[in-house]
Design a protein that fits this description.
This protein is mainly α. Helices cover 54% and strands 8% of the residues. The protein has a single domain, classed as Orthogonal Bundle (Cytochrome p450), CATH 1.10.630.10. The strands form four sheets. It has a two-stranded antiparallel sheet with strand order 1-4. Strands 2-3 form a two-stranded antiparallel ribbon. Bound molecules: protoporphyrin IX containing FE. The site of protoporphyrin IX containing FE has 22 residues, from helix 6 and helix 13. Keywords: Heme, Iron, Lipid biosynthesis, Lipid metabolism, Membrane, Metal-binding, Monooxygenase, Oxidoreductase, Steroid biosynthesis, Transmembrane, Transmembrane helix.
């Protein structure tokens, strides 16, 4: 993500330093707002300020280069390069945009991928079906003399989409949303006064047994059933499990504030799963569990053992 946003290469000292600050920032984002020495909140404020200074410095360097007419293909095509050249955003708006995208686009996708790695070994039949789907895609590409995955390949990943949806439903990377009533609202017999904050808990919807059969069970095939049901109008109306309904599945939120990166996130997960199932066998090295405190994480870092498969493709 940092590479696409600011052309930061993984492993180099400045990226690692930014990562360290980012982790401290994340730990204090949802914490009691006590600006006292040693608190997570205070440390997060300090890290946020360090990150903003870092982005500001990068911006100044870029502006200098642009003035001198120095071209850099990679930097000109990253997000920072694009906004500097083609937008009229103020410095403050650019800083806010870059920080928000680093925040919104990094943790969510990487935790979702970790959750897929965590759930799948408990469902060997799903791994088998994924392998079949991706082996077929890889075989067709080889026949066509192509190597890199493209949009048409992605569109063929139908079962993979079921695995992604199920991972997002059960994993609940984002557990609740933030809303504020802009006027007095009466909803299902409840009065919500103007100005009150409302936190819709999407995790509660995703784990509701009235909406999802055996909601704690990782079952990617439920999404195939859902597709089948929605194509069969008559059966949908008599079913309890209307999880094709947008209000019952909203890992990316909804309405005008719907996640801006939802399609990118699913694409990232699909590409990762493609390479994972084609090339590797993996298992959990020790028992670990996903915890939400407040962001979903694995206390032990989800250690896995990985073995390379001798693929015949
Ligand atoms: C699996 C990964 C992801 C999940 C589960 C996720 C989830 C969410 C959720 C629940 C929201 C709040 C929506 C609302 O309030 O209704 C949101 C907002 C947002 N997300 Fe994501 N997200 C993911 C990945 C990404 C990525 C990869 C990017 C960008 C590269 C991104 C950018 C954003 C932005 C910019 C917003 C704010 C949208 C707005 O307020 O207008 N997200 N995301």
């Amino acid at each position: 993500m940092a590479k696409h946003i600011m052309s930061l290469d993984p492993g180099v000292p400045e990226t690692e330093q930014l990562k360290k600050e980012y982790i401290t920032f994340m730990k204090g984002v949802v914490s009691p707002p006590l600006n006292l020495p040693g608190t997570a909140y205070r440390k997060a404020l300090q890290s946020r300020s360090t990150i903003l200074k870092f982005i500001n410095r990068k911006m100044d360097e870029r502006v200098e280069k642009m003035k001198e007419g120095i071209e850099d293909l990679e930097e000109d095509n990253d997000l920072l390069g694009w906004v500097l050249k083609h937008s009229n955003l103020s410095t403050e708006q650019i800083l806010d945009l870059i920080l928000s995208l680093l925040f919104a686009g990094h943790e969510t996708s990487s935790v979702s991928i970790a959750l897929a790695i965590y759930f799948l070994p408990g469902c060997p039949r799903a791994i088998q079906q994924l392998r079949e789907e991706h082996t077929e895609i890889a075989r067709a590409k080889k026949q066509a003399g192509e190597t890199d995955l493209n949009w048409d390949d992605y569109k063929k990943m139908e079962f993979t989409q079921c695995v992604i949806s199920e991972t997002l439903r059960l994993g609940n990377v984002v557990r609740f949303l933030h809303r504020k009533a802009l006027k007095d609202v009466r909803y299902k017999g409840y009065d919500i006064p103007c100005g009150w904050k409302v936190l819709p808990v999407i995790a509660a919807v995703h784990l509701d047994p009235l909406l999802f059969d055996h909601p704690q069970h990782f079952n990617p095939w439920r999404w195939q059933e859902m597709k089948q049901q929605s194509s069969d109008q008559s059966s949908t109306s008599s079913s309890n499990y209307n999880y094709g309904n947008n209000n019952s599945f909203m890992p990316f939120g909804g309405g005008p504030r719907l996640c801006a990166g939802s399609e990118l996130a699913k694409l990232e997960m699909a590409v990762f799963i493609h390479h994972l199932v084609l090339n590797y066998h993996w298992e959990l090295a020790e028992k670990d569990q996903a915890f939400a405190f407040p962001f979903v994480d694995f206390p032990k870092g989800l250690p896995i053992t990985v073995r390379h498969l001798n693929s015949c493709i």
